[in-house]
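Quick one: structure for this chain?
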Amino acid sequence: MRYVIVRDDDTNAFTPVHCLERLYRPFLEYGLPVNLAVIPEVATEARMANGRLEGFLVHRNGATAPRMPIAANQSLVNYLSDNPGYRLAQHGCHHDYLEFDSLDRGEIVRRLERGAERLLEAGFSRSETFVAPYDKLSRVSLREVAGRFRVLSTGWFELRRLPCSWWPKYVFKKLRHKSHWRKGQLLLLSHPGCLLSCHRVYNTMMSGIVHQLQYNQLTVLVTHWWEYFRDEKPDHDFIAFLHETARYIAHNAELKALSFSDLLTGQFPLN
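Got it. Here's what it folds into:
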């Protein structure tokens, strides 16, 4: 048996319910968990490295407050609460650019705690999974995340960013050519890039996804909801491809979709 975790990033206070419903109703009907990395208190001027406004703010509709907590979108909160197939992970705090690639421990702690508080205020349970914006964490952030969460999902790990005491475990993982590893109570998961992306060639995406699902015992499959609705217009071909991916997962007897929290039960081995 092989396993897949579907991780969708950047749900926030400005995410319309109809976007998630359009994308993930087939997953929910198949009984496939959808792991949403939720921004607890999104920065309304969050920008990419090139200065462009982040795509997940496409529906901010002229909001002028510097930040908006997830609880401000009660319709979204109700929708997520009413559909338990969605599993929530804490996605940073404000999603400022590289907000956890910092050595300022006080600021890191503030953001981790504020993010957790904002999710609790919305009525959600405290998340045991953390996803850093842009998959970037400093060694200070890694230490603080390890003390608060049980799962870290990121793109890759670099020796120079790890606390020195983590190096032996990391080197052992590299020597064994493993994608995932453990440090204390923390499971550290890597992923093979954003395989479900509007920046890829659609007619070749499935072959890449199938290869990863067949090659790895556990694959974290990452996508971003807003890429399916660029410029507030649905990309019908991309959406259809996402639904094809759901069918492939649901109808493959050798494949099982998991939530991050499923990994904490000890029933599913890590490669």
